[in-house]
Amino acid sequence: MSKKPEGTYRLAGGITVTDADLEADAQRFEAGECDGSWKVLPGRPQLFGEDTMPVGTRLPESLVRELDEAAGELGQTRSELVRRFISDGLLALKA
User: 82: which residues sit within 8 A by CB, 6+ positions away?
Assistant: First the structure.
């Protein structure tokens, strides 16, 4: 599996940003477009623009370790990688 691209950073909340994202934010702050105040939104942010449902499954420990290792190499969480694999698998079934 490939490693995360150079200049890509994972924030504490799980969001991935690039050097370009950070530079664009800096330019907005310097231009005075941001007043420096934070707006706190209740609840978890939507990931997909629609409601989600939890899906549980059991996997062998060795598979979970491989999954976690791959996710770490890609700078993703286990959940992000599982969602990606499921989405890619469903697309492949439709092809």
Answer: 67
Q: Average pLDDT across each block of 10 residues of the chain; the chain has 95 residues. List them in order.
A: 71 83 90 78 76 91 96 92 94 92
Q: How many CB atoms lie within 10 A of CB 82?
A: 16
**Three-state SS at 17:** strand
Paired residues of 16 in beta bridges:
10
Q: 3-class DSSP state for residue 89?
A: helix
Contact 69, 84 (CB under 8 A): no
In Å, how far from its chain's centre is CA 67? 15
Name the amino acid, one letter, at 58.
R
The DSSP secondary-structure symbol of 10 reads E
Q: Which two tokens stand for residue 2?
A: 């490939």
* H/E stretch holding 8: strand 8-10
